[in-house]
Amino acid sequence: MRFAKAGKLTDGSFFDVVVKAVPPLVSSNPGYQSHFAYIRNGVARTMSQLNKPFNKPNPNNIRQGESVAKNLHMMNTVKTPPDGYMGQINMYSDANQKLVETLFEFRFEKSDKPGELVDDKEMLFKMAFVDFDKDRRQSSTESFCVNADQLEIDITDIDLAKTQNKHPDTEEPYLFIPGLLEEMDGRFLEVDVRNVTCNGRDGGYSLKVTGTTVGFLCDNPEKYDEYFWARKYNEKTGLWTYKPDGLKTCKDCFHNRKPEQRCHGPTEWNVKRDGSIVEDLSSAGKEWQFYPEHPTASDYTRCETCKHDDPPCYSVQKCQQNVMREYNNPYVNPWKRSLQLSFSKPSFEVTYGLGCQNIDGKEYKAPLVETCDRNFVFTCSTWRCVQPPHPIHNPITTTNP
After folding, report:
1. Residue among 364, 399, 382, 397 at smallest CA distance from 167
2. Can you tell me the distance from the alpha carbon of 13 to that of 274, in angstroms, rounded to the nearest whole number?
3. Are 30 and 116 contained in the same domain?
4. 342 in any annotated domain
5. Which tens digit of pLDDT belongs to each residue from 313-372?
6. pLDDT band at 103, cuts 50/70/90?
7. Residue 397 domain-assigned?
8. Which domain holds residue 159?
9. Are 78 and 184 in the same domain?
10. pLDDT for the residue 80
11. Which residue has the higher pLDDT, 232 or 61?
């Protein structure tokens, strides 16, 4: 896939982002697999079947019993020409294969000279790899791996990497890795720096990331800053300010499918002898359990003394109302399931992995019937290495097959 004119270089010229699946070296590896590449690969939100000739489905690629209308990506729009902020790759596996890993090469090429890598010493070439999660049935597992020697800074020494993770002029982080370089809740991503390469060979290091929580199509990214700290540059102070943005709530995701019934928290709480509160999860809406970030029952009880907290609240009743509103509409912080990586060269390789297992837990009972397909989403963001420290965000805008 070629994402044409994905961004600009410091001289004002454009570059493309090119993504290629690397053929496997062994015959036992089937290589890249997807049943829905014809409707899901490309720029997220724009790969509509109505956007001809950009995406004319090949009937030979459609499985028996499937239809284009049934599998059309819900986030797609009918905008022509297509544009968007995120690139997307669809992958397929089944419970017989268990795990399919595909090596992809990413290249930043000059738009006016296809095939020629860019050469811009004043730019940091960043990629955001986002939305690593599982399906509701938890039969699918998404993973990502990159060899550490391709990154802009060394991550084999975590403490040293933390001290070196900001550009001296712009103060922009080279890497954003929740649970590793950021002091964040690590339950959303399993992150591991391994002393082997992505293909398991000795003599190198790799960063392996696996999604651990359930995600939905509606919490997929639509723009870059939804998934990372929103950056604002103050002209007067010359400083950057950061604040979280882009929360995805349960009711937003299910706004047209009885959100009140699906998203409410447990209606029954049990108080133990020691005073601790246990929620009866069976009394919650069916989707509530998949949105882990919300107030707790203990937060509600703390409202009784909130006037004495720092900062104090003005009304116990108002505090309780706010807690219950958020409790019955939980949310996810999407950037906690995402990575931002700076690469030392404008050409690099990453490995996407898709695990698949039978949901009934009985191995090989119906491995070909239990199929998994997931979308891997990414975007580029290039930043100047020199003053002034203003970001040049380059959303992926167009794609050519």
Report:
1. 382
2. 66
3. yes
4. yes
5. 888 999 999 999 999 999 888 878 888 899 999 999 999 999 988 776 666 566 666 678
6. very high
7. no
8. 2-238+334-384
9. yes
10. 45
11. 232
